[in-house]
Every structure is written in C-alpha cells, then in structure tokens.
Amino acid sequence: MDSTTVVSDPTRRRRRAPSALLVVLAMATGACGGQPDGGPGAAAEVAVRGSGGVNAEVHQGAPHLVLISFDGFRHDYMDRYAAPNFQRVAAAGVRADRLIPVFPTKTFPTHYSVATGMYAENHGIVGNTFWDPARGAEYELSDRDVVEDGTWYRGEPIWVTAERQGMVSAAYFFVGTEADVMGVRPTHWRPYDGRVSRNARVDQALAWLADDPASRPHVITLYFSDVDDAGHTYGPDSPETGAAVAEVDAALGRLLDGIEALPHGDQVYVVLTSDHGMMPAPGARAEGLDLDVLPGVRMITSGPYASLFVDEGGASRAPALRDSIAAMLPHGAVYLRADVPERFHYSADPRIGDLVVIMEPEWTVVRQDRLPVRDSYTHGWDNRTLGMGGIFLAMGPGIAGGQRIEAFESIHIYPLMAHVLGLTPNPEADGSLQVLLPVLAGR
Ligand code: AMP
Ligand code: ZN
Ligand code: ZN
Question: pTM of the prediction?
Fold first, then answer.
C-alpha cells in the first residue's frame, strides 16, 4: 500500500490461539455473550481487568462518546468533495482548520497518539513497522500476534482509562483496541478485518448505544480505511477519492440519524478524526540508498522517512555514516536519533533507530536496488506539512454549534475526551486540556 519495506524477522510468531483464560474468566463473571455478527474473526473477548462489562454507578449519568477515525481523510477534502454529514457535524459543533498528526504520519503511530494523548516517542508505536532492539523483535501492522500483544504499547488509551475507572468501552476497530494494553482491552472489541461493511460497523455502534444504562458503553470507537485506500491508489485529486469521501459521509449520516433517534441521543458526543493526509510521491523524486557501501546498516522503513540501525558496536561509526547517507540523499535530512529536531518529538525511544532520515515532501528514500520506482501517493512526511494534515470535528452536549478553531496537535484530543466523560486522565499524557477546553465554553 505504501513504500515501506520491512526487514522480516524469521523468528516471528504466527497468530496464537485465543486466550482460553480470558474466555473462561469472562464466562465465570457472566460478562460474556451478547456479541454481534461481524464476519470472520468476529469473536470478541471481554476484558477481565477492566469494567467487567458493567458501568460503575458513578458513570451511569455520564455522556457517551463515539470516536471515529477516517483513515487518510486530508483536511481539505471536506470542502473539495461533497460531505454533507461532515458539514452537519461542523454546524452542530466545532471544526478545526486542520488536525496536526504526530510524526511519523503513518496510521499506527498517529492513531495511537489520538488514543493516548502522547507523542510516538513516548507511547512506543513509532511506526507501522519498527524494530525493537531491546526485544530483538519486529512490530509490523499485519502481524496479528504483535498487534494484539499489549506489552508493545505504552501510554493509556482512552478506552483503558475508561475501563480502569469502571466505565464500559467498545471498539469496532481502532489501532490499539485489539491489544491488552496494561492488561486491559475494551469490553467489546474485534480483530481488525477491513472486509466488514461500513453499515455493519455503524449499526453495531448504534446497538451498543441502545444497550441498558448499566452495560451501555460510554466510549465507542469506529474506523474506516476507504478514503486512505482510494488516496493511495488514485491520489487526493481524483474522482475515486471524492467517491470514497461520499461513502464514508453516508456511513456518518446513518450514525448521526441513528443517534438522533435515541431517547438519550442528546447525551452523545461524536468526535471525527483522521490520522494524516495524502500527497504525491513521484517516482522521479525517489532517492536511492546504497546499503552495499554502508556495511552493518539496516534500513527498517523507507519512503517519506526511514529508520536505520547500525550493527552492534557501531555507535561510534554513526556520525560518519550519517554524513555518507546525507551525501546520497540531496532531498533528505539525516539525523542521529538524539539530534532529531525537538518539534518532531521523535528521539526518546531506541525503537526509532540509530539514524533517522526525513525526506522533503514528495521525496522518498528507497534501497538503491529498488530504483526506479513508480509514481504513487503516500504519507509519512513532516507532520507540519499541510498535505499531511487531518481533520477534527466534534459535537455533543457541551459543545456549542458553528465553532471554527485553528489547527492543533492531535495529542490534545485525549484530555478533552477524558474531561467530557468525567474520567481522570493519565497524568503522563503529553496533551493538555487547556488547548481544547475553550470549545466547551458557551454551553
Ligand atoms: P497507512 O497506509 O499507514 O494509512 O495504513 C492503512 C492501513 O492500515 C489500512 O488500509 C488497514 O489495512 C491497516 N489497518 C488499520 N487499522 C488496522 C488494525 N487495527 N490492524 C491491522 N491493520 C490495520
Ligand atoms: Zn492511515
Ligand atoms: Zn495510508
């Protein structure tokens, strides 16, 4: 889908069997059952260290919040393409000029930052693919084993904040919801399966919102990849991407109509986000890295940015290697990890690599032997690049309609969500409530 290359780890484990312990414990607590359709792999497990599927009494009057991610929905699509239901949310609530994702602008790090309020260097999901030198293992988005293994994840996603405080949560997909982060999953969750129809996801969210107050989830996540899929294949300026916007807009309309029809519909927040934008990656703007003349250097990711590891004992060689690599990449900036400029917040975690390459927008780095590459469309560049910007819109009982706010960083969404739900946020989150608190004024 994008130009990421992966150094595969031959020791990678394959999908493990469902955790019998979880299922048995869930049955023993009576919290199992009531799971819906959902097609292949839809069997859901019930968190046993969370709410146990029952809202603590203190939360039963709290509002509900549906957090939706539209993958690859660039900030300007709403105005370029017909999106009447996105406009409906803007009119009823608040719309940001643009959402500034975290770096790197790839699906896994950016989603998990929305969920946790942390930069990637702090939450640990530093790419869609990355190498962990301490574990000697690779994280890769299509490897179900690692994606579902909570020990890879740091921070406290909003659904874990909720569950740990006795509030029921549910996910029909969102990065991180399949993993037992801090030993906790949402009460209801699904292994990611892109084949599940948009309407099935929406209808399940509506069914959850119609549950009895005792078990009705207060945090619900939804995720749609359609716009990203079209953007990678046809580009941001194509009728196909416009059609994908119309499709997710229709799904959003179905959700909004369903919420309006609920007796407690006015107690539901709807938060719309996206993880990054989309830009052209012309084949003529790909620069090659000749790893044959860089002994002991491994490139873990490539494309708009790259992580490079220098083999054992190579730390002293890193500065010289940086200079050699910089000479091969006229349109890239090459940094020792500690020297990555502060504003990227991409230094603290050894998973980032010994050396980091960040290419200029539209330029990519690939292994020399992969050249030439075809024209394509992707994301992953500097998070401040306009074309990497996403969306943020929100409506709900505490938000006055018709508000327009400036661009802001996605780490500030977590504290707002915790606040409106009456939850105590993780004090280690990087985001600050002060940034979005003004949207709650005037109601
Ligand atoms: P990207 O190119 O970085 O935008 O990645 C987008 C792709 O990530 C989507 O097309 C999905 O296939 C994949 N994806 C999204 N969420 C998940 C998930 N929870 N588990 C595995 N893959 C996912
Ligand atoms: Zn994405
Ligand atoms: Zn993508």
Answer: 0.91
